[in-house]
Amino acid sequence: xxxxxxxxxxxxxxxxxxxxxxxxxxxxxxxxxxxxxxxxxxxxxxxxxxxxxxxxxxxxxxxxxxxxxxxxxxxxxxxxxxxxxxxxxxxxxxxxxxxxxxxxxxxxxxxxxxxxxxxxxxxxxxxxxxxxxxxxxxxxxxxxxxxxxxxxxxxxxxxxxxxxxxxxxxxxxxxxxxxxxx
Length: 182
What we know:
Distance between the termini: 71 Å
Order of helices and strands: HEHEHEHEHH
Helix content: 55-70%
Structural class: alpha+beta
CATH architecture of the largest domain: 2-Layer Sandwich
Shape: elongated
């Protein structure tokens, strides 16, 4: 076999593989879990299909790069549906360019849409995975920043008052730090 014919075969195989397999998104995955303890019924399948169709349609959130579900990649159904038939996953990869506030907005949009399918006929629909966990952690720690800062300042003020026994001397280092960090 000549080098030219080998190159042509590799090129043709690469095109065929690309047309049959989903793209390899390098973004952060958001995993949408559809669960019904009684087993996934026709209503659950319809809800999951509607979510999947929304994610690949024109009205999807801006940060979605690729979607892998039993409806977009039928050959992956065995890996995306549990063996007992109670749980299904839909993996939505956020684009690599999505970060920070836009990532949070994308996950919030996913949750807002999927919440309409949650708690219907025993079905639970939740957004999790790395994207969901990071969004939740940012929300939790973002809310505690002010409380933690205020508690620290009060503790330092009490310690400085105990050491210096003078309000003016105790406030001087706190004012200096406040000015330096502002």
